[in-house]
Amino acid sequence: TKGISFDQFVLEVISDDPPERAQIGRQFNFLTDGQGRVMADHIFAYSHQAAFLMFMSEHLQHPVEIAPKNVSPRVDAPLHAATLAKLREVRSADFMLYDEIVAQEGHLHTPLD
What pTM, to 2 d.p., does this model score? Predict the structure, then answer.
């Protein structure tokens, strides 16, 4: 994405014919059967890593700590309101799934039958 803004990258991602660099797929498609049924027992929001660490610690019966590695430097990556609105419209299923995970304090548990 060198040489383009984050805003331009997002527009490429949601375009009808994204360039190779913007063909990143969709979390909704990866985590569901395409009809909205979640196909993973546990999904954790990256923004709520404490929930993941607590789950793993309880599951393994000992504390789990993860040291940061390969951390990208912070950069200014503004997203225009119109671009965000278009992204939310085009990827509405992805945002609905993410919102559901966050509403469950960062850990969505959906036992598979």
Answer: 0.84
Using DSSP's 3-state secondary structure scheme, residue 100 falls into helix
Query: Kindly report the CA angle at 54 between 98 and 107, in degrees rounded to 5?
Result: 20
Residues in the chain, how many? 113
Strand residues in the chain grouped as ranges (E): 42-44, 107-109
Question: What residue has token string 């027992």?
Answer: 41
The CA angle 21-93-98, to the nearest 5 degrees, is 85
Q: State pLDDT tens for residues 85-102.
A: 999 999 999 999 999 999
Q: Rg for the chain (alpha carbons), in Å?
A: 17
d(CA 109, CA 101): 9
